[in-house]
Amino acid sequence: MIHLDYRDTRPIYEQVKDGLRKLMVTGMLRAGDKLPSVRTLAVDLAINPNTIQRAYSQLEAEGYIVSVSGKGTFVAQMENQNEVRRAEVEAKLRPLRDELRSLGMTAQEWTQLWEGGNE
C-alpha cells in the first residue's frame, strides 16, 4: 500500500501523505472508503502514530480526507482530485522552470527533457 524509503530526504509524514494521496488520485482509494485508524496504520508501517496523525491532518486540510468523530477517517468526495493535485505539482514545478531558464535552458531543450530525450 504505502512504501517508506528511509533514505529519502522527505520526512516520513510526507511520504505517508504522498503515498495515500497517490492511492486516492489513482483510484485505488475511492471517495467514501474508510482509511485505517491512526494506530493501525502506524503499526502496519512500524512508525509513530503521531507521524500518521500529522499526515492525516494535512490531507484533511488539503481536502483529501474527512474525519467523522466516532466513526473514522474517510476519503473525501472530490470531483476534481486530479485537478487539485496537478495544480500542486505545477506550483512546485514553476520555480524549477524559472531556475532552468535563468541557467539558459531553451524551450526546445525543455521540450526535449519533457519528452524524455537524453535519458
Describe the structure.
- Helices cover 55% and strands 7% of the residues.
- A hairpin with a 3-residue loop joins strand 1 and strand 2.
- It contains 5 helices and 2 strands, in the order H-H-H-E-E-H-H.
- The chain has a two-stranded antiparallel ribbon.
- Helix 1 crosses helix 3 (49-61) and helix 2 crosses helix 3.
- By secondary structure, the chain is mainly α.
- The protein is elongated and about 55 Å long.
- The protein has helices at residues 12-25, 38-45, 49-61, 81-102, 107-114, and strands at 65-68, 72-75.
- The mean pLDDT is 89.
- It starts with 11 loop residues before the first helix and ends in a 5-residue tail after the last helix.
SS class: mainly alpha
Largest sheet: 2 strands, antiparallel
Uncertain segments are none
* Radius of gyration, in angstroms, nearest whole number: 18 Å
Task: Please indicate the percent range of residues in DSSP E strands (runs of 2 or more).
Answer: 5-15%
- Mean pLDDT equals 89
Q: Work out the helicity level.
A: 40-55%
Shape: elongated
Number of distinct helices: 5
Number of strands: 2
Ends apart, CA distance between termini: 29 Å
Secondary-structure element string: HHHEEHH
Strand order of the largest sheet: 1-2
Concise summary:
This protein is mainly alpha-helical. The chain has helices at 12-25, 38-45, 49-61, 81-102, 107-114, and strands at residues 65-68, 72-75. β1 (65-68) and β2 form a beta hairpin.
Notable features of this structure?
119 residues, mainly alpha, two-stranded antiparallel ribbon, 5 helices, 7% strand
